[in-house]
Structures are given as structure tokens and as C-alpha cells.
Amino acid sequence: MDSLVASLKDIVGSEYCLARDEELFVYECDGLTLEGTRPLAVVLPDTAEQVQATVLACREAGVAFVPRGAGTGLSGGAHAVPGSVLIECSRMTRILEVNVTDRIAVVQPGLVNAALSTAVAPHGLFYAPDPSSQQACTIGGNVAENSGGPHTLKYGTTTQHVLALEMVEPDGARVRYGSPTGFAEGFDLVGAIVGSEGTLGVVTEVTVRLSPIPEATETLLVVFPDVPSACRAVGQVIQTGLVPAALEIVDQRTIAAVEDSVYAAGLPRDAGAILIAELDGAACALPPEVATIRELSEACGATRFQVAANEQERSDFWRARKGAFGAMGRLAPDLYVHDAVVPRAKLPEILAAVCEIGDRYGLRLSNVFHAGDGNLHPNISFDRRDPDELERVMKAGREILETCVRAGGVITGEHGVGIEKRDFMKLVYEDRDLLPMLHLRDAFDPQGVCNPGKVIPQTRFCVESNPHARGYDRVTFE
Ligand SMILES: Cc1cc2nc3c(=O)[nH]c(=O)nc-3n(C[C@H](O)[C@H](O)[C@H](O)COP(=O)(O)OP(=O)(O)OC[C@H]3O[C@@H](n4cnc5c(N)ncnc54)[C@H](O)[C@@H]3O)c2cc1C
Fold this sequence. Notes:
Layout: H1 2-12, E1 17-18, H2 21-24, E2 41-43, H3 48-61, E3 65-68, E4 85-88, E5 95-99, E6 104-107, H4 113-120, E7 125-126, H5 139-145, H6 152-155, E8 162-168, E9 174-178, H7 189-193, E10 202-209, E11 211-212, E12 216-224, H8 227-239, E13 246-251, H9 252-259, E14 273-281, H10 286-299, E15 304-307, H11 311-322, H12 324-327, E16 334-337, E17 340-341, H13 347-360, E18 364-369, E19 375-376, E20 378-382, H14 387-406, H15 431-444, H16 462-465
Parallel strand pairs: 2-4, 3-4
Antiparallel strand pairs: 1-2, 5-6, 6-10, 7-11, 8-9, 8-10, 12-14, 12-15, 13-14, 13-18, 16-20, 17-19, 18-20
The structure holds flavin-adenine dinucleotide (FAD).
């Protein structure tokens, strides 16, 4: 492997190929910290040519590779597999083009999500997908995970905003898919690559749709006695046909963690739950919409209704919401962030069931979630050094997912499958339903060298999807 590392240093420069133990230590995992694997090396390319040369060098050495952005993923998608090279795109941060007339931007994959909206704001434009991690996560990672965020309710997930891609495929070819027009002939392969969790190749360029900054925005903070009544209000709002930009619920435990942290925004500590609602659009359209939300919330038991008085207050509300996961670091050494989706109408009963599961297992469970999308994030704070607690965390997590699936939901809304949910795919798919995904992946990567072992479960498919079972880690690629 020394000769591979030497080739990689030639490609990117020795400063940008990390191979010492103390350098690799921090790359053992992403945001899923429960397990991890130290990679053979980490390469930080600067250009698509360097990505391509890296992929070719890995192939020649018979070594698997894993694309990586900022490592904020929560399902282990960017974890190394044993003996693999991580291709981290975080130096590829250039905005290659902004076309204001067509409202598109062409960017490198390592650009941080929030940096794009900041850069295009002077043109009256923004990039709509806004994961709560947007100050750190990259556009490449967002594409791979089809990331959402609080504003998914109105603006959709990443897939609605990606028009074209360039990708280095697992055989080293550099290929373009899609078109800046948003239309393309034949199969929608951009659609297939978005959300494929880095298993089909390394994305090296992304053409995204930009949206006009709305004329007006109103951000509301509504206090409820408990989470189920806040959920009922969300259902009522959606039923009217109104499409707010965001409808987010934060529970009492999360409020306390946020208020004790640097993200504190003066949220009411005595609230059972708060709903953060945002409306945007033409200025004249918003007052009646605000009134509708107020009326429906009060009918569902809201005890306080506040409209952000200015931009500072608005950004305080969002800083508190988006900093919630970080604030939970105060509660315990470890945090397991779950991510399931249920039909919105079932939110009150599912939330009650999720809390019952947490209590039954004696766990510290909190909820902060994209209520308008039915996208739950039950968060379990725990200490992995306590094996009994860890076991309860895993059992409760499985029960939560099973409960959501029984309600007609799915096992991930935005954090992806990775390794975390891979074996739970059987909760929602029969073996034969998984075959098309397996065949698609094999069409791009017949030798299973690009982020192997992720997304597709390994039980029935162990021979096809496990690189070790196939001996891929031992054979030389042609
Ligand atoms: C505090 C916090 C809040 C979060 N909030 C949200 C949220 O609101 N919504 C949401 O959707 N997610 C959220 N996430 C999860 C995470 O931030 C997203 O999944 C994000 O898109 C990951 O981006 P990244 O750059 O960190 O990618 P990484 O974690 O590095 O990688 C994620 C996946 O993308 C692949 N990948 C990365 N770059 C490329 C590339 N160039 N080509 C091909 N594949 C690539 C990797 O192989 C991996 O499978 C949150 C995470 C944290 C820690």
C-alpha cells in the first residue's frame, strides 16, 4: 500500500494525502459516531482531474474508495470500509458560474451549503435546500443524501434543485448527466444519482437551481402545552391548503438544552412544545395567512403566539432550531439522531408512541422535527460506556422505526440509509423490491469499489453487496 500512498501524494501533493495514524484518527466516522473504521488514507483533491486520477490509482491498487464531504452525515455513509481510501471533497469549494438570468449556479461539490446562498444574495437569489447543518455540510454531501431541511415543506428536497451533474464513475470515467435547462432525454439519471449516498461515483460538479428571495417573510413562534397539540395544529394548517415555508416542532427537553447553550434565543422554558412556522411570498398575502395559523393554533390549545418583530428575532428563532442537535451535546456524551417519516395525520399518535417507547426503555428522548413533512427526529441522549444503556438505545431505535413503518411511514426522511439503516431496509422492502437498486448500482460499479457495503442490506444479498464476500478486497481490478 506504500506505493498507492506515494501515487496519491503525487496526484494531490503530499500535504493533501493523509496517511499517518494521528491524521486518520479523525476520519474514523462521520456524524454516526457509534461505530467507525480507520481508512488507509484520506485524499483531499482540488480538481475533478485529481479526483479522476485518485479513482484510477485506487482501481490499479485494487482498493475501494469512499467519497466524503464535511462528514456531517448521520447514517455512516462517509465511514471508511476496511482498507479503503476516503476522497474528501472539502477543498473543492469554487463557485464556477452564477447565471442570474437562468437562475442557476455551477459549483464544486465541497462548497458549504450556506456559502452558496450568501454568495448569490446580492442578486436577490438563494439556494433553497437548508439542512440544519448548512453552516458545515457540503453541496456534494447534500446531493448524495438528497438532503432536506426546515424549508423542504415548500421548496422540496435537494433533488428538486439539481439540474445537472458531473461525476467520476467507479471505472474512472468523467461523465456529465442532466442539463442546465432542467430537461434531459432518456432515463432521469440525475434523479438516480441524487440520494445514491456516494455509491455510484464521486460527484465533481453540480448545477443547481437558484430561487428568488421572497418579497416578505413572517416567522412565528407558537407555544403549546404539549407536542401532540402542536402536531394537531400542523395538521389543521395543512388541511386548509396553506403551504407555509416551514412548520417545525421543538419539545420541552430540547428547549431546555437549547436555552442552556450558546444557541439560547429566549425560548419559553415552561412550554410543552413550540411550533416555529414560517410564511413567505408576496407581502400582501402574508397577514391573512398569519391570522389563519394563529386561529388554528389557538383552537388546538396554543397559549402564546409571537411574530418575529425583526430580522434579528427571526434569525434567533432559527439559530435555536438549527442548533438543537448541537445543544443536545450538553445532555450526555452521545446522541443518536433518528430520522423517520410518517403520514402527517398520524403525527399526534406516533409522537405519543415514540415518547412511550423512550420512557419504557428508561431513556432520555427528545424531539425536534420537520412536522410539516411528517419527518420525525427522535433523539436519544446516552452514554455508550454503559453497555446496558447502549443496548436499550438500540432496541428502542428499532421499535421506533417499526412503529413508524406500521403507520405507513418510511425509515429515513433525509439522513439516508448508509450503514445505520441498511439492515432495516427489510422493514420496508421485499428482497425482490431491492433488486432494481442493486442492479442500478452494479451498472455503475460492477466491481463494488465505490462506497461498498452501504445502503443495500447484506443478508440475502451478501454475495452481491459485500465486497469481502465477493473477495473484492483481494482481487486486482482489470
Ligand atoms: C447538526 C446536524 C444537523 C443536520 N440537519 C440535517 C437536516 O436538517 N437535513 C438533512 O437532510 N440532513 C441533516 N443533517 C445530516 C447531514 O448534514 C446531511 O446528510 C449532509 O448532506 C451531509 O453532507 P456532508 O458534506 O457532511 O457529507 P458527508 O457526511 O461527508 O457524506 C454524506 C454522504 O455523501 C457522500 N458524498 C459526499 N460527498 C460526495 C461527492 N462529492 N460525491 C458523491 N458522494 C458524496 C458520502 O459518501 C456519504 O455517503 C444534519 C447533520 C447534523 C450533524
